[in-house]
Write a structure and sequence with these properties.
Keywords: Copper, Heme, Iron, Metal-binding, Oxidoreductase, Repeat
Number of helices: 10
Shape: elongated
CATH superfamily of the largest domain: Cupredoxins -  blue copper proteins
Pfam family, one: Cytochrom_C
Subunit structure: Homotrimer.
Family: Belongs to the multicopper oxidase family.
InterPro entries: Cu-oxidase-like_N (IPR011707), Cupredoxin (IPR008972), Cyt_c-like_dom (IPR009056), Cyt_c-like_dom_sf (IPR036909), Cytochrome_c-type_DH (IPR051459), NO2-reductase_Cu (IPR001287)
Bound molecules: heme C, copper (II) ion
Length: about 475
């Protein structure tokens, strides 16, 4: 929405003037100033700052103002994931930091305060600033001090801000980033819901999921070997009760940033298509986009109308990051179904060309039914381990630890230890439906395992006598009894 910068554009406007006079007038009323730097400000107001996923009210048609922004830096311990904490460095007490909303032509008076309990000096580099260091050189501030500097927003768009104090990578990796929006004159078009989401990668001394307070790991950060890749600073910041919401028929606008420090984001919402993307947070609009790339230190604005109810999953489509490192959020949409746009399950059945119930995992060794009556425990353990490695390992993992939200653990499994006949039945016949193992719910499918009674006895004996389980010795006759329905 800027004034044409050269004569050609003006000529062009004149040429189409005859046919497009009305739209020409509409455009030119907004272009009273040669450049945004010339837009005068009237009066003063204090900016509303919000923590993610919220954004402040839009600028609407307000005039450019002197805008007071007060940002406080807080170093504080927070939850990275269940049982794991991290010492975050924050702008305003959240990761990402407080959202700042301005309009083009505003003159921002920015005060950066460094809380006296903090341990380090910090500063701020706002990508919306035209000037050396984006403000960094003027804002360097020690704990217990504050710094003030002014800038004028002359380019509209969505911009990242971040700390730029050495070691810069470490300050960013600890959560020191956020977004500042510069709206055009008259504001962005109205939508029903707006949210603030920012991706970041984290590097901890322990591995993903290791409990306790986890320190920053410089070497992993240098190697770009992230333990966590998350939206809004922690695993689950946008899932379950923290999910963002909308109603069927509403338009949703997401202000999406990427703080990095290292990774670029392939931002995608499963089950939605972005009607519009303001590419890289700038003025060019792309339409009908499935996945948009958000560079480290960059942003994008995505918009879409939600047409059907359900849970839409936000991911970095570098998909291991979503399912194994935390880059997963949820948009919950309520309202009326629209069976034409999406039917839901029309019919559900087990696909099994052989007929019968749950699908069989072919195994090939079905006839090796050698009596185990004479086997010692050590022999059963040996044979059971082999069967486990061949048959169960892919899902339940090498040490029976399972995979969160997908395959339940067999190690120290309360479900397994509670009922041996039930365990036998599961291996013989497979299992579907919701079960709770060690307090976690699973609702998935375990295929029927095509192994002999002896093998079932051996593999379960191996499992019961490993990884902290209750040492049950499962016999072939026990398996036969379950098989025959006793
Ligand atoms: C294809 C993946 C897969 C394979 C292979 C597999 N399982 Fe499972 N298993 C599952 C799933 C999924 C569940 C949970 C089913 C549900 O949600 O109802 C499960 C549940 C179980 C349970 C009950 C829950 C618990 O954690 O105690 C036991 C016991 C079990 N499996 C044992 C085995 C054994 C023994 C083998 C190998 C002979 C095996 N499974 C092979 C996927 C698998
Ligand atoms: Cu800093």
């Amino acid at each position: 929405m800027r004034k044409p910068k050269n004569g050609l554009a003006v000529l062009y406007l004149m040429a189409i003037g005859a046919i497009g006079l009305q739209s020409c007038i509409d455009n030119t009323t907004k272009k009273e100033y040669a450049s945004a730097a010339d837009i005068p400000v009237s009066r003063e107001m204090t900016a509303e700052l919000t923590a993610p996923p919220n954004v402040p009210r839009g600028v609407g048609d307000r005039k450019a103002k002197k805008l007071i922004v007060n940002m406080e830096i807080l170093e504080q311990e927070g939850t990275m994931t269940d049982g794991t904490t991290y010492n975050y460095w924050t702008f305003g007490g959240s990761v990402p930091g407080s959202f700042i909303r301005t309009r083009v032509g505003d003159e921002v008076e920015f005060t950066l305060s460094n809380h006296p309990d903090n341990k380090l000096p910090h500063n701020i580099d706002l990508h919306a600033v035209t000037g050396p260091g984006g403000g960094a050189t003027s804002s360097f501030v020690a704990p217990g001090h504050e710094k003030k500097f002014n800038f004028k927003t002359i380019n509209e768009g969505l911009y990242v801000y971040h700390c730029a104090t050495a070691p810069v990578g470490m300050h960013v990796a600890n959560g020191m980033y956020g977004l500042i929006l510069v709206e055009p004159e008259g504001g962005l078009p109205r939508v029903d819901k707006e949210y603030y989401i920012m991706q970041g990668d984290f590097y901890t001394q322990g591995e993903n999921g290791d409990p306790g307070l986890q320190a920053f790991d410089m070497q992993k950060a240098v190697d770009e070997d992230a333990d966590y890749v998350v939206f809004n600073g922690s695993v689950g910041a946008l899932t379950g009760d923290n999910a963002i919401t909308a109603n069927v028929g509403e338009t949703v606008r997401l202000y999406v940033g990427n703080g990095g420090p290292n990774l670029v984001s392939s931002f995608h919402v499963i089950g939605e298509i972005f009607d519009k993307v303001m590419v890289e947070g700038g003025s060019s609009i792309n339409e009908n986009v499935q996945t948009t790339l958000i560079p480290a230190g960059g942003a994008a604005i995505v918009e879409f109308r939600v047409d059907v109810p359900g849970t839409f999953i936000l991911v970095d489509h570098s998909i291991f990051r979503a399912f194994n490192k935390g880059a997963l959020g949820m948009l919950k949409v309520q309202g009326e179904e629209n069976k034409t746009i999406y039917s839901g399950v029309v019919q559900e059945g087990i696909y099994n060309p052989e007929g019968g119930g749950i699908q069989v995992m072919p195994n090939g060794d079905e006839d090796t039914d050698i009596s185990s009556g004479t086997k010692t425990l050590a022999e059963k353990m040996e044979s059971g381990k082999q069967i486990y490695t061949k048959t169960c390992f892919a899902c339940h993992q090498a040490n029976g630890e399972g995979i969160p939200n997908a395959f339940p653990p067999l190690a120290e499994s309360d479900y397994l230890n509670a009922d041996v006949n039930r365990a036998i039945d599961i291996v013989l016949n497979g299992k579907t439906g919701e079960i709770t193992v060690n307090g976690q719910k699973y609702n998935s499918v375990m295929t029927k395992q095509a192994i002999s009674s002896d093998e079932v006895a051996d593999v379960l004996t191996y499992i019961y006598n490993s990884w902290g389980n209750n040492k049950t010795n499962v016999t072939r006759s026990q398996v036969e009894q379950v098989k025959n329905g006793h």
